[in-house]
Amino acid sequence: MDNIRQLSTKLNRLSWIIPACFGFSCALLAAGIALLMLRTFNNMEQTWLFSIGADLFCMAVCVMLCFSCVLNFKRRNEHTRVFVALLTTNATALFLDEAAWLVQAIPEFKTMNLIINVLFYMTGSVLIYQFWQYIRRVLNMENSLMRAADSILNMLLIPTLLLCLVNLFYPMYFSVDDAGVYQRCDKWYISQLYMCVALLIVILELLMSKASKKDRLVAFSFAAIPLINQLLTRYIFGISTQYAAMLVSIVLIYGVLFAEREKTITSTEMELNVATRIQSNMLPNTFPFLPDRTEFDLFASMTPAKEVGGDFYDFFMVDEDHLALVIADVSGKGIPAALFMMASKILIKNCVMTGKSPGEVLGTVNNQICENNQEEMFVTVWLGILNVNDGTLVSANAGHEYPLLKSPDGDFELIKSKHSFVVGGMKGLKYRETEMKLEPGAKLFLYTDGVPEAETKGEKQYGYERFLAAVNRNSDSSPQKLLATVEADVSEFVQSYPQFDDLTMLCVHYIGKDGNDERADS
After folding, report:
1. What is the phi/psi pair of residue 383, to 5°?
2. Which of 260, 298, 306, 322 is deepest in the core (most CB within 10 A)?
């Protein structure tokens, strides 16, 4: 649970990257159009205009793809951020390519032409590196060979960038003469070595990858399209389409791989939604519960997190005189936790109905779960059986949160007693029982750890102090209003911060056998 929480917090902190990349890409496109208008079309060759037009068009495509990622809030993950960063780097390379053409053959801009082209070469190497990282992540290419290849590309990137900087002082890849004209040097091919090494590694990995044939063919375009373009334009200076060709690869990979994953994610979400509905329907949600019974009033709620969780509550009459109360929290998240939750709930209820005491019930259920618990899941449980005639409450606590108890004339307080071990952790355990007497007017408040451990920015938790303050501000309210008060206070505390755990609560107002129907208005 903590690992999931830390990962979600990290992802939330990086959520600004996608909008920032979109804004930067928009700025590059606007700057590209503005520079073209300032330069005008005078003394520009037709091939130059073709290259500039291709750069602007491809920059616009980058902006549109970034915008689609901004709108798609639900799909913001690590892959999406790497993809948007890749688009932004490609847009930067296209902008620098356009700028290089705009200052071409203008003597006054000789130095600027030199700087722009150095940055252009450096951006190209960074783009190749990002492309490699993106393909590796999307296709889950993780093995010893890939880790070695990744180390090689990491080490080669720095000297590759430094060699680009050499051109500021010594014409190694290109030169800019006194007339402001860019020209390739004899050693220009060295600038392409990093790209060739990266492409070769990708091709070798794709041949050995266990990914689907379609995914491998799509990813192969990363190597094929730029290489084909390189062969076609190797001896044609005057038409620059390298990064336009790479954008074609990006769009192809985005369209196919992302679409395939979109179907998988959509299918998974549908399954989770069904699981959430099943989980919700398993919990008693008819209130008031047994309106003809005047000895008690109760209310329960569960506000699920985005994922299917393992929290559950239950309440039912064991016989005419005894009310069973259960609240529990299963380890883990997702559909496995929901399945474990349903199994635990059924086992506990069935065992309670046999007439066993709370400690005996938890011992029996623990042994049943441990018989075939290969996944090593467990559940924390608070189980109590209340005699509605005299207020006697016998309970057992298997590693769950301490309940809150309010005396008729007092405030809610934590009732701390020694915990027993969780259910499902070890076979043959015995669970200690606690007995207390509820006076008429007393209230019992049960909850899961999603309440005190609710977090806001900076990983600050809601905590027991604020929790107690919230329930005691309205301690005389009905159970339903008390739960609504706590839920509203937690929501105010966390604000827009993601909810990592279910908020599950159950409150019982004991009125007593001889008392009047003192149920507060809901």
Report:
1. -125, 125
2. 298
